[in-house]
Please model this.
Amino acid sequence: MRYQAPGTIDEAVAVLAAANGGAQVLAGGTDLLVQLRAGMIGPEVIVDIKRIPELRAIAVENDGFRIGAAVAGAEMGEHAALKASWPGVVEAMELIGSTQIQGRATPGGNLCNASPAADCVPAMLAASAMCTIAGPTGRRDLSVGDVATGPGQTALGKGEFVVDFRLPERPPRSGDAYLRFIPRTEMDIAVVGAGVNVTLDNDGVCTAARVVLGAVAPRILLVPEAAAALVGARLDDDALGRLDAACRAACRPIDDKRGTIVYRTKVSGVLACRAAAIAFERARTS
Amino acid sequence: MTTNGNGSTQGNGLKWVGKRTIRPDGVDKVTGRAQFGADFTLPGMIVGQVLRSPHAHANIRSIKTDKAEALPGVKAVVTSADFPELPSTFEAAGEVMLNFRDMSCNVLARKKVLYHGHAVAAVAATSVAVADQALALIEVDYEILPHVIDVIEAMAPDAPLLHDDMFTIGVEPTPDKPSNIAKRVEYGLGDIEAGFKAADVVVEREFTTKAVHQGYIEPHAAVATASEDGQCHIWCSTQGQFVVRAYVSKLLGLEISQLRVTPSEIGGGFGGKTVVYLEPLALALSLKCHRPVKMVMSREEVFQASGPTSGAHVWVKVGATKDGRITAAEAVLKYQAGAVQGSPIMPGCMCAFAPYDLENVKVVGFDVVSNRPKVAAYRAPGAPISEFGVECVIDEVANKIGMDAIAFREKNAAREGTHAAYGPRFGPVGYTETLRVAKEHPHYHAPLGPNQGRGVASGFWFNIGGDSSAALHINEDGTATVISGCPDIGGSRASLVIMAAEILGIDVDRVRPIIADTSSIGYSFLTGGSRVTFATGMAVIQAAEDVVRQLRERAAMIWEIDVEAVVWENGEARPSGSNAGEFDPLSLGDIAAKAGKTGGPINGHASLNAQGAGPAFGTHICDVEVDKETGRVTVLRYTAVQDAGKAIHPSYVEGQIQGGAVQGIGWALNEEYIYDEKGRLENAGFLDYRIPVASDMPMIDAVIVEVPNPKHPFGVRGVGEVPLCPPMAAVANAVAAATGLRMADLPISPPKLLEAIDNGL
Amino acid sequence: MVKTHVTMTVNGEAAELLCDTRATLLDVLRDELDLTGSKEGCSSGDCGACSVMLDDRLVCSCLVLGAEAEGCAIETIEGMADDDRLHPLQQTFLEEAALQCGICTPGFLVAAKALLDRHPDPTETEVRYWLAGNLCRCTGYDKIVRAVMLTAADMRGEPR
Amino acid sequence: MLTSGLSQQFTGGRSEIEVRAATVRQLLGELDDLYPGLGSELGTDTAIAIDGEIFQDPYLEAIGADSEIYFLPRIGGG
Model:
């Protein structure tokens, strides 16, 4: 196994192309090194993208944000403006692992690991984040929701990798939130995750919403029915009841060592309602 | 944290005992200097790796190792063929009786693999990478057999059979058909039928507990070397260098004098490092290639192949009168032993009802094998499981008759002279004191909020004594060295030097401890059973008294008076009175400086088999809050009261209590071995085997009660085991108080509790 | 076996070595540089016993390739004491008996120092969450959390 | 003088036996005479409680005229 740390995106593309399939992109490494150690992967070459400046930067861009794919979770948490605009996205990223993991783990890695339980992806999708993908044929844009196609599977072609994420401008009277359930208070993989992003009018009525669930299906789940339950409503029991029901109906979870079908289904509604309450409050006070 | 002195006469006038001194090994451990198992290296050292079974149960048709042996860099390969076949008899090894055929089969599978992760072969090579390649080249032809994981299923007549020569011991007549039930045991007093007839209230309930791992953070590690003349040396992380010597020499057919074992610093054990896994493999490999061989388990191997404690099925029935007197108590305990016999079923049975004064009691226990790793000791082996069921039922009975949970326990508590449920009468014990202190603790009277509940539970452990040796060397400048044979797993060096300094009457900083290898100190049983401060402490005290006697003799020589006329006070020899003569006191330093002129070096020694270990009790109070929408249980407040007899170093006594309580909370809420349908362990790592993290826990208020053990010079009982007994019931009782739901199956994980809440179970 | 040339600074000293590309930073520290104070408890980033500072970020050295450390500054437990003076955290851990077996202690000390360097006045909850990636099985965390809080107060110059 | 648990298979279920003996060694001898095999069984891996005090390796311990004796399995620990 070889290790390469290209300094530019083009170099990285070239290295990946040359390896034709035998290469593995290394961002934070918090999943990759575990898989390497367990013998789950055995690449010929590891391509470390952390030496590419653009991939390590957070920039304000047409009133939104451009977040490099290899930015560490802790760096996102320390970015005051980003945290003020997209608290849900930042708190989702910060939920991943321990302080030590936060020093390494990246949104790019979390997305491309393609786990149905990824924490930052539901919040990013609720925020309508897009990502830039670089490859041998140039650049293309993809919604964060379309990168993972199944557990461990991505839509990335040979030699392609994620360069950055783009969060839109935060509209007035809008807010987002992400909650997950884990058995302990830290260090576990999400049993259920729920990201909510809402915009309100002056009367506190919801004019736009996106609700996304994690760990309840083979892929991160955007739930339009759940969003519809909120649009046109204030945060009252009826709306929450409809949100709860829509989330439960959308779940297609499995029984595994981390949770049961029954449990995940029930808790998806509970978390969506709790996340919605936080998102509404943030929208009101924004 | 507070210390409730309890009129301990031994507590009076002590200079060092009871002081919170800085531990002698502390600086090495906060600077990274301390050498643990995996930190040790030798010149020319190579590494060993283990090939493990991918199946839960299979016959081994053949093992072909020739390709592995041919791989460049491979220095040795061993299988069970390299180990002598041992008879299935219980033989003495050091202090304990063990079945060495079973131990040998667990170290390396013979004919059959009995669990997922069972060691099949081991390789020594010049690097981990080469060793791993070699493992892949070993061809094992398995005939997969049906497996059984659950204890109840394993007891079924048609269950897959692990050992065709296992005929249940303890039933008359001995069965003619083999089964997975190794043994049946029974304890009892009085007439339970009559007892239950006399009861106004009877509560009967079934419980299950899951196998849980000790969870020490340091994986097993060993370095072994064997020279061409057969002299062997092992450096390893263990709770007992002498038991490693006894086991490994027996497993490999060596004479004990051929083998020297040096213990490293030990990164946690809790009972799990009282047995051998890598040590005999590393030595067998070194005996073949005569290179030092280092072996370190991965975390996955620790979970797959080292001992958890038993999962179990527990049935408990308790009857009481309206006014709160228990009239009868009965329990049936079925414990998983793992792949070979030897669950802690006997102590489980003996401890079940030990906290109570019962006229009519019966406990029946079964030791059951299944396709899991062989269980190993875990704090108070067996007791936390049976006491969990009993303390839950005690709580229900108290509720039914409308009596306060502590008052009900007080009314039935074992006291001095009480016949323990397992037979003998208790001497002075501190159970009622722990109940009184718990009842008076502000925690017990603090208000609770919505969805919150409070639970109480008590626990018991015998504590043990046993063989210990110690030496005390007086150096030329009057400083001293304490030498013992028990690894320091949680601060015992500190308690040993405190006791030595107390007897010698010198500054504790002038006494340095070392833990010697098996060739440098007399036999000492392992660190376990809460015995070191008690038993090894006794040996240290006797060695120090031996030194004081010699110091008085030397002073008598120097003063040319009768030794009877010399007293030892505050580290000095003085004439006993004016008629003894007028002499300036002689300090330890003065006498040490003249040692050569007065007969040579001054050293004390003591070897003993400590009897009279003091039984100990604890009572815990736990507050929880339940999230009724997610089933999450949050521990809000926790208080643990325990009788330590005498706390030599209160901080490390508190530490034992706090650590045990948190391990118990983990056992209660999240920890469990999870198997897939093929019998493979699914959560062999710290990610999904969820031990408590710092943010899960509140502060743990450890309250020390001191009812001295009359058999120990300072009153020590031992503290390490008891703290793991009460927590599971304390948590379950608190959850019951918060929800009205009796959760009888551990762990009380969110999916289980939410299901119970939604079904109003 | 492919080796990668790596130069880094470890506890202020320059280190240069050839490391197997599969070797983690923890392997390099322990096996190449004989800095065995960082411990391997899980090699999956779950126990924190291998915690070190990498360019002033707290990381698990078992989740960093040695090759990734090229040009980086590493701080380990061995660099925490200043000549013969222990760091206040080390001293308080001793005084408060915040260790039992001691295997997790180096990781806790490195992580706690990283916390106090950033937040001199953390709440108990902040301390517990910051240290959630460091497993301890002996102490139940009580005395560790107390020691960190106490050290923070001392370092702020508050009377005990 | 009581025995319990496993040893009952030797005494045909009897759990209370009167024996004259001044030491544990003599006691085990007497038991072997009464129930062949029992004494040596108890001698190998059993602890004894004499009037409440547990001895893990009993052999020469003195026994009083009306001492109460219990045979127990030896206790280990974690």
